[in-house]
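Subject: Protein record for review, amino acid sequence with backbone structure tokens
Why sent: The fold of this protein is of interest and is recorded here as tokens.
Enclosed: The protein record, placed directly beneath this head.
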Amino acid sequence: MFRFTQRSSTLAADLALVVVAFIWGTTFVLVKGALQEIGPFAFLAARFWIAFLVLGLPLLSRLWRGERSLWRNGGLLGVVLFAAYALQTAGLRTTSASKAAFITGLSVVLVPLLAALWLRQLPRPVAWLSALLATVGLALLSMPLGQSLVVGDGLVLGCALMFAIHILLVGRYASRYDPLALSAVQMGVVALLSGLVAPWAEPWPARLSPVVWGAVLFTALLATVLALVLQVSAQRRTPPHRAALLLTLEPVFAALAAYFLGERLTPQGWMGCALILIAMVMAEVAERNN
């Protein structure tokens, strides 16, 4: 388990979240390539069952003895995480990896808005300004001149909302439980729900290519097991708004990975990405100062 000493906890937690952003950013192009051969729910089922077996099995005795609230709150986190990944993975079938990454990044803008609603407070003006910038950026990125929003972009936008809720919930519950146990419960819930939905949503392919298996293993072992454990561990020392700020690097890493693999955005699209990134940073810097 990843533990942070009192003196180095802030730096270690920040670096852990940057690593999470890098891993998650590089997964967009891998998942999009895999979806040419496998459906989104089948992919998620394979990804999260492997992740749960790797992390969950060694913890079975600990999970069995765990308090009921771990299962209740971890189960809630798992349901929200399933919704986020299901929407994102389904959206990647019809939108580009770069666009999906930046739209997912809107979760950072949504965090302070949702937090204000949670506390029954009126969002601060800077939160509305960042939301406006993000909306303009989303329009520039997702709706080229003469075109409308594609279904995939809408699905990923729903994913951003789910991830924002997940960030807030992790910030609320992370300090109460063992991060490994909390992560394992989430993975088990996502694996179970994905496995239940997959047979009804799409046929399981008769054979998976090495490309698909590579994407499944990368996302299972690094983007799921390692990244979730790092996130939960880091957020024991980092408040939700600071975690969200560091995770703004995810779409940057995704865009770089997509660019090197030949994916290109229009100048209008890059302008939209820039506005979204500015809105993300603005929202989180303002929240931190507040």
About this structure: The two ends are 32 Å apart (CA to CA). The chain has one domain: 9-289. The chain has a mean pLDDT of 84. The chain has 13 helices and no strands.
